[in-house]
């Protein structure tokens, strides 16, 4: 058993996982925008990391990985787009491990992470973030070109950004990039299994194989199921995932006001209610920043991972 297994939320979808002496960053977006609630940690201060696993390549997940990797020698696991950007940012190739889903990376003795292909939330379908009980319908069957056109035309979404936030975004601009293909990670440790998802999407055929003792699920934007936007609310999306995954403990991510003027401070009550209605046994955890939350406490007697016997 791991003597210590704690999780720090560093805002947005970034977490720091400590498994005894091993330090693993889940995403690496640490330096917050002006006006975002402070977490008390900056990327420059981070001097200890062994691994950085990145869910996708957008700046609010990846920006910071280049500095943390250089400062600590940590190896970055991420998509080929993530690796391309990190190479451009001067991270040595020996610290980069490109994955696409289907791999299992050994992180330390008895600790590994499996990589799954996933989907990004439908950022093209809306001009602003909605609260989780707002029902969104339509937008089905659009071509890639139509989605790109919508994305390019949603200039209003950025209209509310302050000059300070605009300058901040410019300072952290790492050049053009896509999301790189969203990835989901499932950690297997002696103390239990942990799922990390950093954007609201999944392939429904994959979802049952993500089952874990503890699941970090993204809670922001319009959910994506098999490439199409959810017909319903974000709360229903998260509750639907929980109903399949059946984690013993569910931790929310990406739900804070990480980019004031574009993001929102999510009211999590509808998510809590929707999850409780469908899977009352799931313990939903909303952690504060840097709380050193003991993720597997109270789960030690349970079988680690519930993936056996699962059928899609
Ligand atoms: Zn993204």
List keywords for this structure.
seven-stranded mixed β-sheet, 22% strand, disordered C terminus, binds zinc ion
Helices and strands in order, then pairings?
Blueprint (H helix, E strand, L loop, with lengths): L4 E5 L5 E5 L2 E5 L24 E3 L5 H4 L2 H8 L2 E4 L1 H9 L7 E3 L5 E5 L2 E7 L26 H9 L10 H9 L11 E7 L2 E5 L4 E2 L11 E5 L5 E2 L2 E2 L4 H12 L3 E5 L15 H10 L4 E3 L7 E2 L18
Parallel strand pairs: 3-4, 4-5, 5-6, 10-12, 11-13, 12-15, 15-16
Antiparallel strand pairs: 1-2, 1-17, 2-3, 7-8, 8-9, 9-10, 13-14
The chain binds zinc ion (ZN).
Can you describe this structure?
There is one protein chain. The chain is built from seven helices and 17 strands. It has helices at residues 59-62, 65-72, 80-88, 144-152, 163-171, 234-245, 269-278, and strands at 5-9, 15-19, 22-26, 51-53, 75-78, 96-98, 104-108, 111-117, 183-189, 192-196, 201-202, 214-218, 224-225, 228-229, 249-253, 283-285, 293-294. The strands form three sheets. Strands 6-5-4-3-2-1-17 form a seven-stranded mixed sheet, with helices on one face. The protein has a seven-stranded mixed sheet with strand order 7-8-9-10-12-15-16, with helices on one face. The chain is globular, with a radius of gyration of 18 Å. The structure holds zinc ion. Residues 56, 58, 120, 179, 199 line the site of zinc ion (ZN). The site of zinc ion (ZN) has 5 residues, from loops.
